[in-house]
Amino acid sequence: MENGEGQNQQQELAKPQQGDAQQREPKGGPDLGQANKRLNEENKALKASIEQMQAQMGELTKKFEGAKTAEDVAAAVEAAKKEAEEASAKTKADYDARMKSLTVQNALIQAGCSDTVALMAHIDMEKVEVASDGHISGMDPAKLKESYPYLFQSANTQQTVSTAAAPGGAGKKMTKEEIVGVKDPAERRRLIAENMDLFQ
């Protein structure tokens, strides 16, 4: 009997100990659903932050590009203005040089030059100046005639050519058509210079 009671007591003592062990065990494993939910929320917050930063970067980029474009436009306008001024200056210089050349050629034709192109090669056009009234300085046709007599017609030749070219003798003025019809280029230029009123 004593042995039986002892065993019962030991079993009763063992039961509370097992209960204590059960109480110490955690009630179930970790909650994965809550962890996933928390991670998703953090992920969404991070994405929102990244999108906000990208939007700010986009605005800054647009502002920078706008400033760059404005600078480029201003630079392009200045470059175009400079090119236009240079082109205008070149056009005026070319026009002035052409008018100077024509004025000098006209003066040489009036002086009896038979080949203005050849004679112009001997003239330093840098030293020649033409006033607004057509007066030429820096060139003396008389000296040129002395230096290059073969480029000038003699007085007799000029008179003969003029008389032959004008129907009815020297007393009759030539018409524009008659002057244009003269075959000799040098003579034709001389006649044009002498009758500029017909070609205006």
What does it look like?
- α2 crosses α7.
- It is rod-shaped, with a radius of gyration of 55 Å.
- The longest helix is centred in the middle third of the chain and has 79 residues.
- Helix content is 70%, strand content 2%.
- The protein has seven helices and two strands; from the N terminus they run αααββαααα.
- With 200 residues, it is mainly α.
- The termini are far apart.
- A two-stranded antiparallel ribbon has the order 1-2.
- Among the domains are: 88 residues; 48 residues, no CATH class.
Within the largest sheet, what's the order of strands? 1-2
Count the E strands: 2
Measured by DSSP, the beta-strand proportion falls in under 5%
- The SSE string, one letter per element, is HHHEEHHHH
Given the C-alpha coordinates, what overall shape results? Answer: rod-shaped
Helix content: over 70%
Main sheet characteristics: 2 strands, antiparallel
First CA to last CA: what distance? 160 Å
Low-confidence runs: 156-171
Q: Mean pLDDT, as a whole number?
A: 75
Helix count equals 7
Computed over alpha carbons, the radius of gyration is 55 Å
Class by alpha and beta content: mainly alpha
Task: Set down the secondary structure blueprint.
Blueprint: H1 2-24, H2 32-110, H3 116-120, E1 129-130, E2 136-137, H4 141-147, H5 155-165, H6 176-180, H7 185-194
Antiparallel strand pairs: 1-2
Helix pairs in contact: 2-7
